[in-house]
Structure formats: structure tokens, C-alpha cells
Inverse folding.
């Protein structure tokens, strides 16, 4: 089984550092809290298909 | 995976010149303070107010000891990404004080199991105290690094993590380890951070910026 993931999706983003008790670099870098999910492919065939799709997308 | 991280744009590589041991020590020091002195105030929110900010349902916190909740730190909500089913096996990477592990332990029930992994002994102590106080029997806390999880191959159905992935100096290594411990179709449900502005190489080596 290949060591990769498919179905990556960021589902939520928000400024989770605003008004924290101590100053941080979050605002300087536009840092947001996020939730993301992905899953391990069901088979090598699904993994190979995902890699092929990425290679096409990135030229 | 190795091939992709070498060739695709946008895949984070370990910053050259970053002193990983110093980074680990700095992170351990910071989070030991969160475990032992949560009222101190940090550059991130903590505790029950943070849980509300991250849309944790109040029922999830019922019965979890207040010291465990007080030392909660995170940047997202892994449980908003999908239900953990009864009987599932869960690995909580960077479990900290254990709040997510304890929530997960109730979701998966007695037939399921949770392994929380953290590199900071003070956090593990807090997590174990919380589990003991709750009488939870399906969760185990282990000391370890995300890049070398103390979990068998293909053991887990779900890997959760909250505000920790950004602290991995070698993110591809962490992802490989997530993949190793998950079985086929295993899920990642992760809360973390997104940096919207570019960082210089110098900033990427600056341990103070890694911490906050």
C-alpha cells in the first residue's frame, strides 16, 4: 500500500489567535486555524490514479 | 509519497539549518507550562473558552475533569470533520492534556480504542490523570514523536490531531507515519493552521516563530 492520502479537503478556517493573552506572530503571517481531512486510498490503483491526476494538474 | 514531496510545488520540506532538537525542547517547555500553569496566558487561547471558539459541543466536555479542559490547546476541531463510529480505533497525535482523546474514547465506546501520543511528559501526566479520574478503560497515553509513532502498522481507523502538525519539522515524515498506522481507507481528521503569507528561510529557522 502506498503511503499517501487522497480526498484532501479544508473544511473550515478562522482567526483563532485573535485577542490571545500574549502577542503572537499570527497576524504578521495571516495565520488561521483550519480543519482538514483526507483518507488513505483503498487500493494501490486508487493511489496511482490520484498521482496521475496530480501530475496532469501540475504539468 | 517520497516522489511527490520531491517533485510537487507547495509540499513543505524541512527547513535547512533548523536545529530540530532545540525546536523540540522549546516546544516541550512551552507545552509543559500549558499543562502545569494553564492560567498563565499564552500566545494562543486555551481551555474552555478555546473549546467554545472552536465549536466543541458542550456535551463533549461533560465529565471531563476541569484540569484537563484548562490545559486544552488546539487550533481546530477534528470531530467536526466526521463522526467517530463505535468500535473504531483512533490515534491522537500530539494529544496534549488528552481532551480530544477522552472525547474520542466516548465516541468509539468500549469496543473501540484510543492511543494518545505526546512528546511532553507533563502533558502525558495531565492526560493520564484525566483518564483515571473518568475511569476510562479504552484509552492509552504513550510518549513518543509524531515522526515515530508507538503504534502498530495499520492499527488505526482514524488519526486525529489538533494544532500539532504545524510543529513537525519534517511534515512529509509525519504524513508517512500517519499513513503507516492507518489501515486502508483510514481517515485523517486534523485541526491545524494555515499561513497565508510567505515566510523567509530565516523565519522558517526561527524557533521563536515556530512557538508563536
Amino acid at each position: 500500500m502506498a503511503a499517501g492520502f487522497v480526498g484532501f479537503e479544508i473544511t473550515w478556517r478562522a482567526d483563532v489567535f485573535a485577542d490571545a493573552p500574549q502577542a503572537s506572530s499570527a497576524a504578521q503571517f495571516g495565520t488561521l486555524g483550519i480543519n482538514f481531512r483526507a483518507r488513505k486510498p483503498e487500493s494501490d490503483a486508487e493511489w496511482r490514479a490520484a498521482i496521475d491526476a496530480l501530475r496532469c494538474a501540475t504539468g | 509519497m517520497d516522489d511527490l514531496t520531491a517533485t510537487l510545488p507547495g509540499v513543505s520540506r524541512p527547513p535547512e539549518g533548523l536545529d530540530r532538537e532545540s525546536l523540540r525542547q522549546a516546544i516541550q517547555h512551552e507545552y509543559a507550562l500549558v499543562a502545569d500553569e494553564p492560567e498563565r496566558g499564552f500566545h494562543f487561547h486555551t481551555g474552555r473558552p478555546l473549546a467554545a471558539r472552536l465549536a466543541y459541543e458542550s456535551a463533549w466536555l461533560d465529565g471531563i475533569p476541569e484540569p484537563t479542559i484548562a490545559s486544552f490547546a488546539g487550533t481546530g476541531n477534528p470531530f467536526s470533520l466526521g463522526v467517530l463510529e463505535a468500535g473504531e480505533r483512533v490515534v491522537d497525535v500530539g494529544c496534549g492534556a488528552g481532551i480530544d482523546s477522552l472525547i474520542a474514547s466516548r465516541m468509539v465506546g468500549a469496543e473501540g480504542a484510543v492511543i494518545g501520543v505526546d512528546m511532553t511528559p507533563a502533558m502525558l501526566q495531565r492526560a493520564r490523570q484525566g483518564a483515571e479520574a473518568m475511569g476510562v478503560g479504552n484509552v492509552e497515553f504513550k510518549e513518543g514523536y509524531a515522526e515515530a509513532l508507538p503504534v502498530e502498522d495499520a492499527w488505526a481507523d482514524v488519526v486525529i490531531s489538533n494544532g500539532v502538525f504545524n510543529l513537525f519539522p519534517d511534515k512529509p515524515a509525519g504524513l508517512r507515519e500517519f499513513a503507516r498506522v492507518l489501515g486502508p481507507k483510514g481517515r485523517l481528521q486534523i485541526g491545524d493552521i494555515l499561513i497565508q503569507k510567505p515566510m523567509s528561510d530565516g523565519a522558517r529557522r526561527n524557533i521563536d516563530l515556530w512557538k508563536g
Summary: The interface with chain A takes residues 1, 3-4, 8-9, 41-45, 50, 53-54, 75-78, 80-82, 163, 175-176, 178-180, 182-197, 199, 209, 212 of chain B (CB under 8 Å). The mean pLDDT of chain B is 92. Residues 16 and 77 of chain B are 31 Å apart (CA to CA).
